[in-house]
From TrEMBL:
Protein name (database record): Cytosine deaminase
GO MF terms, alphabetically ordered: cytosine deaminase activity; isoguanine deaminase activity; metal ion binding
Lineage: Bacteria, Pseudomonadati, Pseudomonadota, Alphaproteobacteria, Hyphomicrobiales
Keywords of the record: Hydrolase, Metal-binding, Plasmid
EC number from the UniProt entry: 3.5.4.1
Length: 429
């Protein structure tokens, strides 16, 4: 007797009509037809069942703060940073927790059950750290939340920046962050990368740095990050987020840089929605896209995963907590519209991101955690196109969110009365 069986599921790897059996909190079997009974069954009716979505780069301490204390009029990165500096003294633990929990509710409804959030440590009060640690504990039954100690105003540039970051780690933050391109000089940025990697090595922690989030092709801190990763033996435990300066670098230098990153086993985290919105703001025409070299990095064997980064905060007034929206944008901006390209994009918001976060038990094989989402789509390509309804979200074998299928009713003479956009609105073979 199983606890739950999902019937007639399509899987991301192309298998169709598969049954998934759950015993307790684990997947007990994945087979074409499971004859054993179960206490509960869900008929996926040929829909896509995928491991949950994973967001390896987010700012939960800022989410849903749009309009506080004012709007970002220019919509630029630098005004967003300035605006966050205005908001920071007004932050309270209670408000931070309330906004973060509301976002986590949204995330669950979207099948997003794993999030890595950067937490600003530049305010010596560390109210953001206290709040996000509380949120991490509150959401533990349904979301795995990793926290990065992030010196938003610069590790060296901010007053008390060094001490505040170390205090945040002492309080229980999981990961060492940084922002070398925001230090006062390139040399300060280089020194911050070395110091932060040393801290991570000494404490046995991973590293995840905002790195070269700029249009300046001479911002090359990712080179230093890769070198220090090898120096301190941190291979596979380090992520470089954004890396937008690579968009503007000359090809010869990149031909040297990417192999260095591969040697260091750097995890790469572009943020397509925010990168396309904030980069290239000083350009007239032609305008740079700003997104890093996704295809080239993937082709070199680096683990590339996509982050949402922001939802309705000082930097980004949009967002929905939907990682398929992130992947949808990546297809367009990276110009990866081929069939195999789209499969890689889907991996970048699921299995690749799980690898970046070091998740154990993630997947749809026997013995994995019974975590998955049922989508109103037939396969990953259709899911990326439609950004469909999440019909069900399961965490450790328990259904924690449900939605009714999105079906339109038509009143057109001689035409169907109902239309399912996933099944009916497709090219005829």
């Amino acid at each position: 007797m199983f606890d739950l069986i999902i019937r007639k599921a399509n899987l991301p790897d192309g298998r169709t009509g598969v049954d998934i059996a759950v015993k307790g909190a684990k997947i007990a079997a994945v087979e074409p037809q499971i004859d054993s009974p179960a206490r509960a069954e869900i008929d996926a009716t040929g829909r896509l069942v995928t491991p949950p979505f994973v967001d390896p780069h987010f700012h939960m301490d800022a989410t849903l703060s749009l309009g506080l204390p004012r709007m970002n009029v220019s919509g630029t990165l630098l005004e967003g940073i300035s605006l966050w500096g205005e908001l920071r003294p007004l932050l309270t633990k209670e408000a931070l927790v309330e906004r973060a929990l509301r976002y986590c509710d949204l995330a669950v409804s979207q099948g997003l059950l794993f999030i890595r959030s950067h937490v600003d440590t530049s305010d010596p009060r560390l109210v953001t750290v206290e709040a996000m640690i509380e949120v991490r504990e509150k959401v533990k039954p349904y979301i795995d939340l990793q926290l990065v100690a992030f010196p938003q105003d610069g590790y060296y540039r901010a007053e008390n920046g060094v001490g505040s970051l170390n205090r945040a780690l002492d309080m229980g933050i999981d990961i060492v962050g940084g922002i070398p391109h925001f230090e006062r000089t390139m040399d300060d940025g280089r020194a911050s990368v070395e110091a932060l990697c040393r801290i991570a090595a000494d404490r046995g922690l991973p590293v995840d740095m905002h790195c070269d989030e700029t249009d300046d092709p001479m911002s090359r801190h990712i080179e230093t990050l890769a070198a220090q990763t090898v120096r301190f033996g941190l291979q596979g435990r380090v992520a470089g987020s954004h890396l937008t300066s690579m968009h503007s670098m000359d090809n010869y230098y990149v031909s040297k840089l990417i192999p260095l990153m591969a040697e260091a086993k750097i995890n790469v985290i572009p943020n397509p929605l925010i990168n396309i919105m904030l980069q290239g703001r000083h350009d007239s025409y032609p305008k740079r896209r700003g997104l890093t070299r996704v295809r080239e990095l993937m082709d070199a064997g680096l683990n590339v995963s996509f982050g949402h980064d922001c939802v309705m905060d000082p930097w980004y007034s949009m967002g929905s907590g939907d990682m398929l929206e992130v992947g949808h944008m990546a297809i367009h901006v990276a110009q990866m519209a081929g069939l195999e390209d789209k499969k890689k994009i889907f991996d970048a918001i699921t299995v690749n991101s799980a690898k970046t976060m070091g998740l154990e038990g993630y997947g749809l094989e026997k013995g994995c955690n019974a975590d998955f989402a049922i989508l109103q789509a037939a396969d990953p390509l259709e899911a990326l196109r439609l950004k469909p309804t999440r019909l069900g979200v399961i965490r450790r074998g328990k259904v924690i969110a449900r939605s009714m299928p999105c079906i339109a009713e038509l009143s057109l003479d001689g035409r169907p009365a109902r239309i399912d956009s996933g099944r009916d609105y497709v090219p005829l073979s």
